[in-house]
Each structure stands twice: as structure tokens, then as C-alpha cells.
Amino acid sequence: MADFLLVTDLDQTLIGDDKALIILNEVLEKKRQEYDIKIVYSTGRSLELYHQLNREKNLLSPDAVMTSVGTEIYFHPIKDNFDLKWANHVSENWDREAVFSVASHFADLVLQPLSEQTDFKVSYYLSKSIAQEVIPRLKADLLRQKLDTQIIYSASYALDILPKNGGKGSALQYLRKKWEIAVDKTFVCGDSGNDITLFQGEERGIIVANAKSELLQWYYQHKTPFRYLAKQAFAQGILEGLNHFGFITT
Ligand code: GLC
Ligand code: MG
Fold first, then answer.
1. Which atom of ligand 1 approaches the CA of 159 most closely?
2. Within this chain, do residues 154 and 174 fall inside the same structural domain, yes or no?
3. I need a surface site. Which of 20, 74, 85, 232 has the fewest CB within 10 A?
């Protein structure tokens, strides 16, 4: 059982303003001396690209990292701490080859680099101008093959196909229950489409000011007092949100 849980996306949420990141890190380190705070990074990146970012930026050591849009979980220290239980759950009813075969018929879908094609995630680039037309067709073709998946479109360029049981939101619920942390002691932060499922429960949600249109649109359609749209961007927005929910006072 822990006191608090902070789950944050990396690119364009925690990362984006190096100075603000240092300030947020200091605040969290101080808080961590007083309380048992679990910190989780929740990213669309594969483990390989996460390691790359970790080498470039000043990140606090997390208690867990969910990579490839919540389809994989690693506990600290990452090496040798892959969560097999989560992987087994995510793999239920997932047929990667069949999904890939359906999607490869779509000429508009441009395959992302190999590092981003992981066991439970198939990823493409798709331009915004045709996304609204392509996504429903892809969904219909997958369903016709009885492939029950999630299609997630982020930042007007990235399309991920995930197993039904994967995703950042389900991974968040899994960790929150594992560590027995209440929703009002859990903070989730994000900026784009692949973060939407993080905000679907009653955890305290922080959306940074630089959020992408798909998340902003979702936020305006699902307004509640436990979701906060910050006026500031990146780590500064996270600080503002934590302040708003009374977790810190600055
Ligand atoms: C990250 C991943 C990419 C994914 C995107 C959106 O950039 O590297 O594969 O499509 O997040 O989830
Ligand atoms: Mg992001």
C-alpha cells in the first residue's frame, strides 16, 4: 500500500521544458521524503526508445514504466522486472500477425520503425487529412476478421493498433489496484490521444496546456471537477495541476 500515485506521459507532457522538469523533480523528491509516492512513466515509446530518452533527459527514477502505450509494464529496476502477469493479460485474444495482415492492405498506413513494432502494438503513420476516412474502414476490416482491437490515433500522425486489454488506462488501473491507492490519491497527466484512457476513471486528471486537439476535444466533452486543464505547458502544467488538486502548495 502506498500513499500516492503519479502516472505521467513523457513526450510533450513531462518532457518539453527542461527547466520546468528540474523544478517538478525537486518538488517530487521533497514530497517523496514525506510520503510513499509511486511514480510511473506511461509512454507510447518502446522500451528501446524509452532508454534513449532516459539517457538524454533528467528523469527521476520511476517505480514502474509502462511502454508501448501501456501494453508492457516494467518495475524498477527495469532489467529483469518485466511484468509477465500483465503481458499474459494483454495477450488474451490478440493475434498480431492477423492484425498486421489486415492493416497492410491499407496503402495510406505507413509503417513506423521496427523498434516501435512490439509484441502487443502495431504502429503506423497516418496523415490527418485522411485519418477520418481511413480509421473507420480499418476498424470495420478488423472486426470482419473478428479481431477485437483498439485503434488509437495521436497527435495527428500516429496510429497504434493494440490488444483489447492493453492501453495506458487499463495499465494504470492494474497498478493502482496492485498498490492499493485510491482514485483521489492518484494523479494522471497527458497531452495526446494515447493518454485519453488514463482520464477515463475518477483519478485526478491533469491535461497540460499544450495538449493536442483530440485530447482537448475529449476533455470538453467529458468535463468533471476531477479533470483539470492547466494553463501552463509541459512540467509546469503538471505542477499547476498538482497545486490545483491540493497535492502541493507553491
Ligand atoms: C510514440 C511511439 C509511437 C506511437 C506514438 C503514439 O511516439 O514511439 O510508436 O505511435 O507514441 O502512441
Ligand atoms: Mg505525449
1. 10
2. no
3. 85
Whether ligand 1 lies within 6 angstroms of the CB of 205 is answered as no
pTM: 0.98
Q: Give yes or no for a contact between 196 and 218, defined as CB atoms under 8 angstroms apart.
A: yes
Q: Is the Cβ atom of 194 under 6 angstroms away from ligand 1?
A: yes
Task: Dump pLDDT digits (tens) for 139-179.
Answer: 999 999 999 999 999 999 999 999 999 999 999 999 999 99
pLDDT tens sequence across 62-121:
999 999 999 999 999 999 999 999 999 999 999 999 999 999 999 999 999 999 999 999
What is the CATH number for 132?
3.90.1070.10
Range of 21's domain?
4-89+166-244
Q: What are the backbone dihedrals phi and psi of residue 231, each rounded to the nearest 5 degrees, phi first?
A: -85, -20
165 close to ligand 1 (CB < 6 Angstrom): no
